[in-house]
Amino acid sequence: MTMPLQAQRPLDPFQFSMTSFFPVAVFVVLVLLSAALAALFALVHPGLGMGVGLVGVVFSALAASAVKVANDWERGIVLRLGKFQGTRGPGLFCIVPIIDRLRLVDTRVLTEDIRRQEVITRDNVPVSIDGVLFFKVVNVQSAVMRIQDYDWAVTRLAQTALRDVVGGVTLDELLAERERIGKLVQEVVEKQAQEWGLEVTGIRLQDIGMPEELKKIMSRQAAAEREKRATITKAEGDRLAAENLAAAAETMAASPGAMQLRTLQTIDGLGPSASNTVLLAVPIEILELVRRVGEAIPTNGRVAAVSRG
Q1: Are residues 185 and 121 in the same domain?
Q2: What is the pLDDT of residue 309?
Q3: Are 95 and 102 in contact (CB under 8 A)?
Q4: Residues of the chain with pLDDT > 90: what percent?
Q5: With CB atoms 3.0 to 4.6 Å apart as the test, which of 2, 23, 89, 280 could cross-link to 70 if both were Cys?
């Protein structure tokens, strides 16, 4: 199975704006001032002017390295001779050149891909699944001091937790309750991430891949289920139609003129087209007369029998 390429994190347009421009500007200004001062001393003694110029360049480089700028969403960790000194930022601040070491940490919500992996569900169905992890740094000191690379660590933790949670559910639950499973994975990851100074804001499942043979079986099952519902619906419709026809027959039998009206409606429904020809072999009135005579004959017979008796 071909695995998709992982999406790369987009570049931040503000990452190299003020944080890189301001120290360079300080260095350029100080170098220009040093050059002007060196030119003044060169008027007195050429060798003295050269020395002042070299000292000015070194001082400018040290001063520029001491000036730091952190954006509003960044916090800086300062280590002085390897020991934690404190946090700096946001805004303009200074550190001790050479002695201090600075690391800027982004406190915005970060997005990381959970790599696609093969997982066996509880009902022994192999699936390939990936997701997206959303988290942010809430404790800069813990994120830097307690874990080597919090970005890499929380991503691998989410990948492991996703495999464990998916392995405990069935395929039907995985397909129908993706949001609930994402929340279960988030709870597992958040327990460990809190110790690293991180807050997991969400985990979403992206794509669930299944074998082609299983997809065909599920498609046939869905088609059979739809055919079953269609058959049941048709049978219920036939039953309701039969009940309505029986009720209509009882109504027509109770009303003497109902059948005659129904016959006339049927004839009228044929339309006035010349191609339709209706032949009535026996008039409707004769049929009605025969029905009445048939109803009266048994009654007269019983009357005559009673008379003879």
Answers
A1: yes
A2: 47
A3: yes
A4: 21
A5: 89
